[in-house]
Amino acid sequence: MQKEKLWTKSYIMLILGNLFTFMSFQMLIPTLPPYIKSIGGSVFEVGMITALFSLGAVFIRPFIGFLLAFKARKMLVFVGACALLLITFLYPLTNIIIILLAFRMLHGIAWGWSTTANGTAAVDLIPNSRLGEGTGYYGLSITLGMIIAPSLGLILYDRASFETLIYVSAFLGVIALLLLSLVTYQMPESVAKANRNEMKFSYTHSLIEKACWFPALLTLLVAFGYGSIVSFIVIFGDERGIENIFLFYLVNAIFATIFRPITGKMFDRNGPRKIVIFCSLLTFLSLWVLSLSHNSFHIAIAGALLGIGYGSILPTLQSWCLFITEPNRRGIANGMNFSAIDLGIGLSGIVFGFFATFIEIATIFQISSLFILIVTVLVFLSPQEKHFIKEQKSAS
Questions:
Q1: Distance between CA 324 and CA 330 in Å, rounded?
Q2: Is the Cβ–Cβ distance between 165 and 153 less than 8 Å?
Q3: Distance (Å, rounded) from C-alpha 119 to C-alpha 77?
Q4: Domain span at 341
Q5: Count of H helices and E strands in the chain?
Q6: Position 310 in a domain
């Protein structure tokens, strides 16, 4: 049986546009914490930088998820991309920390809008028979953006200036906007036929898709564990005197690029159980290697393990969410999945930002690894997983 076509022009342009969107945004993830600290911010305020953008993203996603149930994709994608670009230019305007925190929350709102709209637009372009593979390649653009951009951001922050970093970030945002303009967007039939007048907005109904609560819960736990890295890896490197922290992200990107297409095809054949268990264990191990690191070589090993583990587990969980959700609810499922990521990282910034005033950051990495281990146990024991595999095989 011939496979349905996946690699269309629109799919490729959307992947590339999303990659540049993530690169533009993610350059600021590891650099804003040390920047806030350098202008007099406390460790708790460093954690709040991560937390507030996550809370903003979680807040907006039910609204964009509701709009995606009946609105054309192009306008929603463009609004998100333009908002991200405009807010990026706000950061150099002030050194007042409370205002920077407000900018970060606005950035989170734009981020929540953009990631939900882009992700749903991508799913619309992917044949259902290749959902795991197609979502995997799209997820790779997310993973690469989250890994390559921090390396570039750290290099610019260390060797140029924060203002230069902002300008490069904005330039990447412009490229993203141009690429997204080349996409021919599609809509599922159920969405095209939806009658807006018959639809009532409910924040809870648009925030939560009950069908995919379990993989979304796993995503929340994984993101909470990973959030300690996002907030504190640069400060950890400074404390340990480790040079070239960017190697962590660079090696991470290489291994994520190699392994993510493989795990995407494995998902379509066998479901997510083995992938999630294996990758969560590697992510757990990477946090321990990171906590024990004292040089660039150790950092690179931790990055490689995280690239395979974390680089594959999030797209796998996203595919799982989408597979068990009705097409007209996939915008909400996508929003719920990304909200789980942002909420996990945001809560991690608050919780571990508080504990960082009392314990070493290496210990924080070790504590956060326990949340990844919980994911392994839950998937191993879950009967839902067995039902999912049975349904997937019967549908293929």
A1: 9
A2: yes
A3: 9
A4: 9-184+205-395
A5: 16, 0
A6: yes
